[in-house]
Design a protein that fits this description.
The protein is mostly helical. The chain has a single domain, classed as Orthogonal Bundle (Lysozyme). It is built from 16 helices and 6 strands. The strands form 3 sheets. The chain has a two-stranded parallel ribbon with strand order 1-6.
């Protein structure tokens, strides 16, 4: 009975996040260009440590990804084309790429290197599992039953992620102890936890969430958690991964409009922030709740704010705008 109640609660929460957006003004509040913070918010220690270990610096890493974008006309053309397909400014995609390769990993010197890596990861033998339990078996557990009624890859995998957070993360279930870590890190990163891949530095769970949208809009075949090599091929192949980057950014813009009442389409630093931190639906709802409370007190609404990652994107926006 407790388990059933918990599952109902999770699915109810998901429905609120995905469907029952609070009433917002018909006219969205436009988030202006630029940063709300006068100085860059602190960069996480893990990113600082990772950069020091490679004997690099954030400035050098930024210059490397900027140089790749500036040098490679074909890459810029691909970005512009996919941005047009998803109805977003290419600066949103460029911002996400710049943020990932400045604070996550170094960019390769040539776009061709990403294609070579994609072939290496598409040779088969990639399984999504934890402790000998395949994720396909894991999500057949009764705790996930009500997720099966949801339509669409985004709703389905978001529900499963919520079940993980509420029921399994850091807990002992059925005699098995599960790590206090994200669902994507535990089951979907077989090489090592926290690793993301490719030009867009996507993790497999993000790709699985957006596969229906990418299939519908770009025509790429749908991904399955049962075929890990196909997921990694999509992540690593620039011709496919850019569509997933665009889909994630488009989704953030849409939910911040429908849920929080903000038009963030003119601020690549905000979309880059959401690309970095994830869960835009929940974050939009949290902001909407906060602003309802502020309105009740006669206060002006709080605008979405950039983190360290988005701050850099806005700070470098003139550099990026010159590319397109």
């Amino acid at each position: 009975m407790v388990r059933r109640h918990l599952t109902h609660l999770i699915c109810a929460t998901l429905c609120l996040v995905l469907l029952a957006a609070p009433a917002v003004s018909a006219k969205l509040i436009t988030v202006p260009e630029g940063n709300r913070n006068t100085s860059q918010p602190p960069v996480p220690g893990a990113s600082v440590k990772r950069t020091k270990q490679t004997k690099s610096s954030f400035d050098r890493k930024y210059e490397k990804i900027h140089a790749l974008l500036k040098r490679d006309r074909k890459l810029r053309s691909k970005i512009a084309k996919v941005a047009g397909t998803y109805g977003i400014d290419p600066l949103h995609i460029a911002g996400a790429l710049v943020g990932e390769h400045t604070y996550n990993v170094d960019a390769y010197d040539r776009l061709q290197s990403y294609y070579v890596k994609a072939l290496a990861y598409a040779t088969g033998g990639i399984d999504f599992s934890y402790g000998g339990e395949d994720v396909d078996d894991f999500i057949q557990r009764s705790e996930f039953d009500e997720c099966q009624t949801l339509a669409g890859s985004f709703a389905l995998w978001t529900c499963r992620e919520l079940v993980w957070e509420k029921t399994f993360r850091g807990k002992r279930v059925g005699g098995k102890k599960y790590p206090n870590n994200r669902f994507s890190a535990v089951f979907f990163q077989p090489f090592y936890a926290g690793q993301t891949f490719g030009l867009g530095q996507l993790n497999p769970l993000t790709a699985l969430k957006h596969t229906d949208a990418v299939n519908r809009i770009s025509g790429h075949r749908k991904l399955s958690h049962r075929k890990g090599e196909d997921v990694y091929k999509a992540i690593m192949n620039p011709d496919i991964t850019l569509a997933y980057v665009a889909a994630a950014l488009r989704h953030s813009i849409d939910v911040y409009g429908s849920i929080a009442g903000f038009d963030i389409s003119n601020n690549p630093g905000i979309t880059a922030t959401l690309y970095n931190v994830g869960n835009p639906d929940l974050r939009a709802r949290t902001l909407a709740r906060k602003n309802r409370q502020r309105k009740a007190k006669g206060q002006k609404p709080s605008l979405p704010q950039e983190n360290y990652y988005g701050w850099l994107v806005n700070d470098k926006i003139d550099d990026l705008r010159a590319l397109f």
